[in-house]
Automatic annotation (TrEMBL):
UniProt-recorded name of the protein: Ketoreductase domain-containing protein
Transmembrane regions: none
UniProt similarity note: Belongs to the short-chain dehydrogenases/reductases (SDR) family.
Pfam family, one: adh_short
Keyword annotations of the record: NADP, Oxidoreductase
Organism per entry: Pseudoneurospora amorphoporcata
PROSITE patterns: ADH_SHORT (PS00061)
PANTHER family, per the entry: 3-OXOACYL-[ACYL-CARRIER-PROTEIN] REDUCTASE, SHORT-CHAIN DEHYDROGENASES/REDUCTASES FAMILY MEMBER
Length: 269
């Protein structure tokens, strides 16, 4: 398992819930993290929570930064990458939920659901993936052969970065009132498997974690006996448990195209 000491991670949706839990875990591993989201006040509060949880580090503020970002905006991504320096890890965790039948879901809400849950992930993979490759290539000053250009050695392709996309169990399991959200998250899974092949050959690993019911603001009000009875483990998961899964996908150097269900066994029902 590779160290994250002195690495830099971008986390969309890093101001709360699963994104914040992943950010805290990466910070604890020695990684510098940049929290990304739409609301600056939320990001600032998340930064304070992460830094205040570490009583030994004096440089905590330097290792935790934030940047307001509209994930569905190409120009917002381009502006971010002009400012943030080298990126080793991208976690696409920004998401909004849906609780309405398709026929009752307004078209502008459909656009927002797809824009945040799918387009934002596509754009993150596109722009950050490109930056990972360019930063890696800019370090080399001497001409290289075709094989060296791709970073192939006796040990395989040299790693240039890693991307973890947070999808959802709903990408694979139909639940009434989540059709657009589910379609977007299924798109994230398809994106992940395609890029694991496309990017993997250039040294960028791409994986996905598919959480089931996790205790966050998005699932508030859903914790009732009928749902709990469906889950073989009989409970909702925690954000820290999702962070554990994301950390494995980030650190394991042979993890590419891993689509990891984390749902207490609900996908088996």
């Amino acid at each position: 398992m590779r160290t994250l000491l002195n690495k830099h991670a971008l986390i969309t949706g890093g101001g709360s819930g699963i994104g914040l839990a992943i950010a805290r875990r990466l910070y604890a591993e020695g990684c510098s993290v940049t929290l990304l989201g739409r609301t600056e006040a939320t990001l600032r509060q998340a930064q304070s929570l992460i830094v205040s949880s570490d009583h030994e580090e004096n440089d905590g503020v330097k290792r935790v930064s934030y940047h307001p970002l509209d994930v569905s905006s190409p120009s917002s991504w381009q502006d971010l990458l002009k400012r943030c320096g080298t990126v080793h890890v991208l976690v696409n965790c920004a998401g909004i939920t849906q609780r309405s039948a398709l026929m009752k879901t307004p078209v502008d809400e459909v656009d927002e659901l797809v824009g945040t849950n799918l387009t934002g992930t596509v754009l993150g993979c596109k722009y950050v993936g490109r930056a990972m490759l360019l930063k890696s290539r800019s370090r080399a000053l001497l001409p290289r052969t075709t094989t060296e250009e791709e970073g192939v050695t006796a040990e395989g392709v040299k790693e240039k970065g890693v991307i973890v996309n947070v999808a959802s169990l709903l990408a694979q399991k139909g639940v009434v009132g989540t059709s657009v959200y589910a379609a977007a998250k299924a798109g994230v899974v398809g994106l992940t498997t395609s890029l694991a092949n496309e990017y993997g050959r250039s040294g960028i690993r791409v994986n996905a974690v598919l959480p089931g019911y996790i205790e966050t603001d998005m699932t508030s009000g859903l914790k009732n006996p009928s749902i709990l009875q469906q889950i073989p483990l009989g409970r909702f998961g925690t954000t820290d448990e999702v962070a554990d899964a994301a950390l494995f996908l980030i650190k394991n150097p042979y993890a590419n195209n891993c689509v990891l269900n984390l749902d207490g066994g609900l996908s088996a029902v």
